[in-house]
Design brief:
single chain, mainly alpha, rod-shaped, cell inner membrane
Length: 229
């Protein structure tokens, strides 16, 4: 409890600029943790939905029936949205007279590419902020430390006889800014690296699914053309 009171006392005795630095770092830390929890929940949900949809897709369910099930849902996400966008475009092109297989598949590929890009952008939301906090917070804290130590030595120069007891509080309050900078930066850097890796794995899974889905549509189209001929 005494340590807590001591830290609060050092904060209250700090200069205005050092206080602003500390409050800024505290705010960045709070916002970072909120984003970390939110991104963790989103990525966990994306991984769960990915596994569920892949199990359903590869279970042998008819593509038209699967498309209708996905269309009936209002919360399509990730792989579901990529599949829905691609198959919707494929059906539209086939119904509007684009019987050429290459054109239909190219249109489907473009539709899925756009949907994939949007889904990855959604997964990467807030990651640039975490990267910024991780890279700049130590320097913000260091700026507060340098400013606080500079003020401590300026005040020290105004007295004839300096003692450690006179210098220690000013240096301590300045070093707290560095500690707070590291406290904000370290979780942000760890979370950014971890989330970036997970987003990359999800993106690869989306890309692989899109390629496999196009192969299925290509085989289906070739089979239909052979029947017609």
């Amino acid at each position: 409890m005494s340590a807590e009171i001591s830290l609060i006392g050092l904060f209250l005795e700090a200069s205005l600029l050092v206080k602003l630095v500390m409050l800024t770092l505290l705010l960045l830390s709070v916002v970072s943790w909120a984003m970390i929890f939110q991104r963790s929940k989103t990525l966990n949900n994306a991984q769960t939905r990915l596994s569920q949809f892949e199990d359903k897709f590869w279970s042998g369910l008819d593509l038209n029936r699967l498309y209708q099930e996905v269309s009936a849902r209002s919360d399509t996400f990730g792989l579901e949205k990529i599949f829905h966008s691609g198959f919707k475009e494929f059906i539209r092109l086939r119904r509007t007279g684009h019987r050429d297989a290459a054109q239909s598949l190219e249109g489907t590929r473009r539709a899925m590419r756009v949907a994939l890009s949007r889904e990855v952008d959604e997964l990467e939301t807030h990651l640039p902020f975490l990267a910024t906090v991780g890279s700049t917070s130590p320097y913000i804290g260091l700026f507060g430390t340098v400013w606080g130590i500079m003020n401590a030595f300026i005040a020290l120069g105004a007295v004839k006889q300096a003692t450690l007891q006179m210098v220690a509080p000013g240096i301590a309050e300045a070093l707290i800014a560095t500690a707070m900078g590291l406290f904000a930066a370290i979780p942000a850097v760890i979370a950014y690296n971890r989330f970036s890796t997970r987003v990359e794995k999800l993106e690869n899974a989306y890309i692989n699914f899109a390629d496999e889905f196009l192969s299925i549509l290509q085989r289906q189209t070739v089979a239909e053309e052979q029947k017609e001929s």
